[in-house]
Amino acid sequence: MVDGESGLCLGCYRTLPEIAGWARLTPDSRATLMQALPARRDRISPEKLGLI
Hints:
By secondary structure, this protein is mainly alpha-helical.
């Protein structure tokens, strides 16, 4: 499920274009993206993540 405000998946924090293009990414590109994902969590309100 994608959050309308942030445009991020509520489970993995990727955007729809990132999800759609995942198979075409190089291993290095995937690793770089994966490193950036935890910081994106703050872009989604805690209520939507079930944290409050």
